[in-house]
Amino acid sequence: MRKILALLAAGMLALAGINGAIAEEETNMSGTTLKDLGITLQTSYKKESENNPLYTQRFGADPGVMEYNGRLYVYMTDDIVEHDADRNVIENTYSRIRTINCISSDDLVNWTDHGRIHVAGWDGIAKWAQNSWAPCAAHKTIDGKEKFFLFFCNGGNGIGVLTADDPAGPWRDELGHLLITRATPNCANVTWLFDPAVMVDEDGTGYLAFGGGVPNGKQAAPGTGRIVRLTEDMLHLDCDPVTLDIPWLFEDSGINRVGDTYIYSYCSNWQTGGNTLNLTDGAIQYMTAADPLGPYTYAGELFPNEGRFFGMYGNNHHSIACLNGEYYLFYHNRPVEKAMGITGNYRSPQADRIEVLADGSLKGVTGTMKGLSQLHPLDGTRLTAAATMSHQAGVTVADPDENGVCAVTGDTGAWTRVTGVDFGAGVSEITVTAGAKEDAEILILAGSPDGPVAARIPVSGDRTEYTVPFSAEGVQNLYFVFAGSAELVSWQAK
Description:
The protein is mainly beta.
């Protein structure tokens, strides 16, 4: 605040990309629009009326979802765009993937970006690992303390696990080596030793499902799926992995409990022609059992290949998640890749609702770009991380700093949107924490990006709290627009 007063007392403040001066009373810009200020918003990779994909500032594939304290955490393979020697985008080889992305939400529309988790490689948490594919996560109370477990596959040749005391990390390599290897009993002949799925049952027992691949001539019964019970500490195996009889298995295990029924779900292979189960290629199938270790009985097809809905066929990887008694299917698609004008199987996370029928079966899911509806408004008077958003264009979310904070950075015309913010009977001011190496502004709009600017905040220097007049009431969308290069850390209206 002292910086604002000092700058305004000088009478003039030159701002990157903006002409003119800003007087103190103009921090609340009644009637002034972005157009009046000469600012053109950058184009989003996500349509204004759609909630899929979940986020667009990075790619994110193979979503593994964990519920904790009324919030869903989504952990994803961090697809890295690859190029040839001439800088042309090439097909994703997955060989460069050494980080995992994490986002979370309690309203299923606004997602908080927790930044990249550096898992594999010389600068990773597990330096012995080469890759970090297809993560999944679980939590469990051990010795009276909640503990979190992040499983990942080291390419197609083993499964590792990290631990943490918070679902967003920081993570540690407590085990120090792979949990599942080809030396693990009954795993030497698993074609693809990857794609873990974890579940902690109601009695606190953990289970890990994994595996995939189609041995030559065994399309109908590959025999490459496994499930194993974990020890109390979730870091060791409590039995030898059990072979699951999974028809037309390809990859992508899932393990859930719905009522008293255990559900194993998976992706079918691409050679299902002529089968008697009416399942299709590259689709999510599910089976049921009375015991988590099986045997499982085929129950039906849950989700056809995403190409059926979006026109872009590819591998189909999913998670089934439950929040507040409702079930959701998380999967990946390639809308951001398409919007960028590139091709190469670079994937983004999406979600649609699962309907559980009266007999306990799962109704087939239709993939949509509209996605999920907001469960409840976001409280505009609570302190909110700037990395919480539903839509954006042009911003970058930094990796977490030593305090776990992920700042949002952008240049002129970059923006974020928070959907359905509840300001109650009304607020009169807003506080943001922001910084800028050179003079810049954060512009705030409520309702529509075409409407009047509600607050105009000059930003300069290290991260500082700025409080300015801001008037809004009821439930509205909230936009933060960058003018000049700046970083935004958090906001709160009062």
